[in-house]
Amino acid sequence: MNIDIQAINAKIEQESAFIEKLMQQMRQVIVGQTYMVERLLIGLLADGHILLEGVPGLAKTMTVKTLSATIKADFQRIQFTPDLLPADIVGTMIYDQKTGAFNPKHGPIFANMILADEINRSPAKVQSALLEAMQERQVTLGEKTYLLPTPFLVLATQNPIEQEGTYPLPEAQVDRFMLKLSVGYPEREEELEIMRRMTQAVVPTVKAVVSPAEIEKAKRAVFDVYIDPKVENYIVDIVFATRQPGEYGLDELKELVSYGASPRASIYLSKAAKAHAFLQRRGYVTPEDVRSIGLDVLRHRVIPTYEAEAEEISAEDIVRKVLNKIEVP
User: Fold this and answer.
1) Contacting residues for 44 by C-beta, under 8 A, at least 6 apart
2) b/e 12-44 (16+ beta carbons within 10 angstroms → b)
3) CA–CA distance from 222 to each of 7, 145, 275, 276, 322 (Å)?
4) Which end of the chain is more exposed for a tag (fewer CB within 10 A), N or C?
């Protein structure tokens, strides 16, 4: 099969022309946080949702809100609390006394971008309602099923500080998120700039530079990004090394991994690597694309053993060892 890399490259360069304009708009409001902005775009373009862990005040809400404003998309923020009900998210049927009929009232899930704030604050039935909508991209109210809008991106945040009165997401549910990001504090110069911008009389705003229809077109283009069989095998080797470390010369990890990454990891690594190449305006995937997003795709899919926890070895440490060990094609 002959692959015309030049033709794919030219197409991707054309389709990804909006990326620079979008990033320029984002930079007018968001200082630094390039990692978070890029990962949000990867989630958007690769049709995957994102779990974000970081202390409060790191501009998580502002970043998602700004991104939705630059693509003229609907944005909804849902603050998860212990008394939240599934109907508060997906909606419910309302009785109309005049007609004697039940009419659907759509919940906040019917938006292009959802910020599920502190998802670990709400009980399991509320979490599962959100996760089901994420997976199926549709909601059933009464006897009718309603499709969610496109593009559709859920960014769920977990607050790592307070664990009292929280309901951590089960490992099996966390696997539904394409990426898990770990957002840190800004650099000193960045924080100085943030302080100056946010204490002015007029806070910077953005304008829409791309439409949801253009994002949908870009998503289709991401599928056309070429991935060589050698890179595909590299992805599968990484995932298998988390399950069978001994077979990949990682004997020291044998007693440290309770469960390795699922087949979803291979799918998401491939999709996210293609989206990463698209952001670089390239029509083919390199091993570096895989390594760049490897930690974000795998950090929540590898479950360490009690021995690992006793030795203070985290899932991230295990994934880093795997990425460093597997030979790059």
Assistant:
1) 67, 151, 153, 215, 219
2) beebbebbeebbebbbebbbbbeebbbbbbbbb
3) 14, 29, 6, 9, 27
4) N
User: If we measure between CA atoms, which residue out of 238, 226, 222 comes closest to residue 329?
Assistant: 238
From residue 30, how far is each of 59, 115, 153, 208, 291 by CA, in Å?
Answer: 8, 17, 19, 15, 26
3-state secondary structure of 6: helix
d(CA 167, CA 156): 14
Q: List the one residue out of 319, 312, 214, 297 whose CA is nearest residue 42.
A: 297
Q: Are 64 and 111 in contact (CB under 8 A)?
A: no
Q: What is the pLDDT tens value at each position of the chain, 329 positions in all?
A: 567 788 888 888 888 888 888 888 888 888 777 888 889 899 999 989 999 887 777 777 788 888 888 888 888 999 888 888 888 998 888 888 888 888 888 889 999 889 888 888 888 888 888 888 888 888 888 788 889 988 888 998 887 665 555 667 777 778 889 999 887 787 888 888 878 877 877 777 788 888 888 888 899 989 989 999 999 999 999 999 999 988 888 888 888 888 889 899 999 999 999 999 999 988 899 999 999 999 999 999 998 989 888 888 888 899 999 999 888 88
Asked if 148 and 129 touch (Cβ cutoff 8 Å), the reply is no
Burial (0-12, 13-18, 19+ Cβ within 10 Å), 77: middle
Contact in structure between 71 and 208 (CB atoms under 8 Å): yes
53 and 180 in contact (C-beta within 8 Å)? yes
| Residues 12 and 278 sit within 8 Å (Cβ to Cβ) | yes
Domains observed in the chain: 18-211 (3.40.50.300), 225-325 (1.10.8.80)
pTM comes to: 0.88
Contacts of 173 (CB under 8 A, 6+ apart): 127, 128, 131
Quick one: which of 53, 55, 129 has its CA closest to 85? 129
Q: Are strands 153-158 and 50-53 parallel, antiparallel or unpaired?
A: parallel
Instruction: Please count the residues of the chain.
Output: 329
